[in-house]
Amino acid sequence: MQDGSSSATDLTRTASRAVIWGFVAIVVVLAGTAALLFANLPDAGAFNARVERIFVENADLTGQAEIKLLEILALSGTAFAETLRSYRMVIFVLMVFASGLLITALVVILVLITLNRRLAQLERAGIQVSSLVVNRAERKVALNDMEFALTEAAVETLAVLAEARMDGDILSGAQIEAVISGRDAADCDEASGAMRIKRLRDSLGNQIVSELLVRNIARQGYMLAIDRKAIRIV
Predict the structure, then answer these.
(1) Residues 52-78 pLDDT 10s
(2) Residue 1 banded pLDDT, cuts 50, 70, 90
(3) How do residues 153-211 score in pLDDT, each as one tens digit?
(4) CA nearest to 203, candidates 116, 124, 143, 145
(5) Contact indicator for 98, 26 with CB cutoff of 8 Å
(6) What is the pTM of this model?
(7) Alpha-carbon dihedral sign for residues 62, 63, 67, 73
C-alpha cells in the first residue's frame, strides 16, 4: 500500500513539474516569437523619415507639381505608419489568442491525465458499494444512492449473480443461463449467459458502474465485485 502511495505521490510531483515546465515553455516560445515578429517589422516612421529627407534634399523643388507630389508622399507615409500600427495591434491580439489556446490545451491535457488516473485507481479498487438491494417484484435495483429500473431478465441475471456472490461462487455463462432457465448447465450455451450479462450492463447504463460492478474473471466466469454482506434480495 505504501508503494502505491509513494508511486501516486511521485506521479503527482512529476505531473506538477510537467505543468510548470509546460507553462514556462509556452511563455518562452510565445515571447521569442513576438520579439522576432516585432523586431522584423519595419519602423512605422521610416517612410515619413524618407519623405522628410526628400523635402530637405530637394528644397529647390518649388513648382506646384513637385510640391503636390511631395504632399502625396507625406500622406502616403502617414497612411503607411498607421497601417503598421494596426498590424502591430493585430499581431499582439493574435499572440494573446495563441497564448490562450496553448494554455487551454495544456489544462485540458492535465484534466484528461487526472481523469485517466482516477479511472485507473477506480478500476484497481473497484466500486465501493455499501448496499445492493435487488427488488425482484418491482424490478428495481438500489446501488448505494442510485436506483435502476431494469427489465425482468436483467433483474433475474443480477439476482443470480448476487446469490452466487453471497455463496462465494463464480458462475460461467452456461451456469447463469442454467439457473435462470432451469435447465442443466451442460445443455446451456456459454454465449447465452454472456448475452444476459451484456444486457444487464446495458440496462445499468453507466459504463463505469456496469463494467466494474459485474466482473469477468478470465477462464472462470462472472461475479459481482462487492462485499457479500452488502447484498440484499427482496
Answers:
(1) 676 677 666 666 766 676 677 667 766
(2) very low
(3) 888 988 999 888 888 888 898 999 998 888 888 888 889 888 988 888 888 775 556 66
(4) 143
(5) no
(6) 0.46
(7) negative
Listing DSSP states for 129-167 in one string gives -S-EEEETTTTEEEETTEEEE--HHHHHHHHHHHHHHHT
Count how many Cα atoms sit within 13 Å of the Cα of residue 137 in the half-sphere of its side chain.
2
Neighbour count for residue 49 (Cβ, 10 Å) = 11
CA distance 220 to 201: 19
CB 141 within 8 A of CB 155: yes
Residue 170 φ then ψ, to 5°: -115, 125
Residue 214 CA to residue 165 CA, distance in Å, equals 11
Q: Using alpha carbons, list the distances in angstroms from residue 127 to 5, 115, 212, 216.
A: 19, 16, 6, 15
